[in-house]
Fold:
Amino acid sequence: CHLPGRDSGMNELAQRLGFTDLDAAFASGDQKAQALKKECARLLQAAQASANTAVSLSPALPAAHRALALTLWHRGQRQPAEVEARTLLNLNPSDAFGSYLLGLTSTDAEESRGFHQRSLEIDPLLLENYLELAVWSYDASTAPGDEKEVEAAALLRKGLALPASETARAPLRQLLGELLLRKGDARAALQQA
Structure:
């Protein structure tokens, strides 16, 4: 990675940080990213094994199915995750996070949206639902500023008004910024950054 006119200063900074040059610093970052990816995969595999054990020991325990659905979904196993989310909701129909999980994993678009709405009815503080529903509205938009974009922006603003960490708010801010940019309001979009 070379930046015209900036290599010497950037290389000097890289050297102060203990690397031979800027390329070595970036290569190190890539190696660290690969190591982190491997560790995450290992931890998800261990979590899935623990959740499988919990389900086998207590098949009537909603939390066991919630844990298994979540780990399966994070490992990209959508259909088995959907089965576990449905089992969870059969055991506990008023589980807001279970409705959220089924919204994520359902292969039927309308059903997915419905489960996110149901989850929000059960727990209006579950921030993730505002983002998922806003994405649905945004994707249904046909023109900048149309009814669906207005709906998406309203959902995002409701979600951003909830008590949450800035890390949790970041995806909502990003989408709201994108909506504002499409509408032509660059100044407001930048405020979401």
